[in-house]
Amino acid sequence: MAQNSPDARPALPYTRLAEIYDHIMGHVDYRRWARYIRNLLKKEGCWPPDSLLDVGCGTGRFLQEFGKNGPLGDGCDPSRAMLDIAQKRLPASKLTRDAFPDLSRQSGREYPLITCLYDTMNYVPEQIEVIRSLNRTFELLAPGGLFIFDVVSRTHCQKYFQHFSDSEVISKELAYERESYFDHRTDLQHNWIRIFTREGIFEESHQQRIYPLRWLREAITGYTELQIRGIFEEFSMEPANRSSGRVHFVLKKPH
After folding, report:
1. pTM of this structure
2. CATH assignment of 158-208, given 1.20.120, 1.10.3470, 3.40.50, 2.20.25?
3. Sequence-ordered alpha helix ranges (H) in 141-212
4. Per residue, what are the HEC states of 24-43?
5. What is the pLDDT of residues 18-57, one digit of tens each?
6. Residues of 91-120 as b/e, b for ≥16 C-beta within 10 angstroms?
7. Interatomic CA distance for residues 197 and 110, integer angstroms
């Protein structure tokens, strides 16, 4: 496991990281994500929606890409620093500082589509909070609306982040070091990142909870009124299984 750097100052998740987040995530194919969500909506006969809410929108890259062939979406994120970048990218979007499980600042409208992508749901730390998140989403959905979210599995964490580290000098003024470790005993994925800036060294600690697919399925059917329309293997229309790395859930609010 990583040890805290004695020279680093602790920072809240996605605060100092925000300024280099898009660089670090440069490998993410947001066009593919947007196309896949679009295909899921077409499969359900729900294309095009007239609006959407992206929970955990980050710097707005998905909303930007999705909006090229769909509606201009709203977004929310717990990080003000991430939202500041997103607002510059999406000046016409309504972006609020908000997060699961409460989404307390979302009111006054119902959405035909709510998304929560790139393992944002794994950042909800406890099972009871996942259930609360699902039920809060139900309240915000329009009748017949869809909630699409994804999670990563133990298989994904063990394959890619069991003992992972990388680093990069981005410029004369910015660099980072990153370390990851998956604890199979607690089903927690630990991520540490040190950001080197002109103001000094900052360190963020992130944790993700890995939820078994069976538990998620039982939580949805047992504790919510959402209907499961599909549980799919990463970027496919094939049913997910125990060996799936990333799994997409498509849930519907009945009319």
Report:
1. 0.96
2. 2.20.25
3. 154-160
4. HCCCCCHHHHHHHHHHHHHH
5. 999 999 999 999 999 999 999 999 999 999 999 999 999 9
6. eebebbebbbbebeebeeeebbbbbbbbbb
7. 42
Q: Which helix (H) or strand (E) holds 77?
A: strand 74-77
Average model confidence (pLDDT) for the chain?
95
Beta strands in 210-245 (DSSP E): 227-233
Domain parsing of the chain, residue ranges = 22-155+212-252, 158-208
Q: What is the CATH number of domain 22-155+212-252?
A: 3.40.50.150
Q: For 175, what's the count of Cα atoms within 13 Å in the CB-facing half-sphere?
A: 10
Length, in residues, of the chain: 255
In contact, 235 and 42? CB cutoff 8 Å: no
CB 94 within 8 A of CB 54: no
**Triad 195, 197, 201: Cα angle to 5°:** 55
Q: d(Cα 19, Cα 16) in Å, to the nearest integer?
A: 6
Round to the nearest angstrom and report the end-to-end CA distance of the chain. Answer: 49
Per the CB < 8 A criterion, the answer to whether 217 and 230 are in contact is no
Residue 178 neighbours by CB under 8 Å, 6+ apart:
24, 164, 165, 166, 167, 191, 192, 193, 194
Q: Is 203 helix (H, G, I), strand (E, B) or coil?
A: strand
- Which residues partner with 76 through β-bridges? 55, 96
Q: Which amino acid is at 114?
A: I
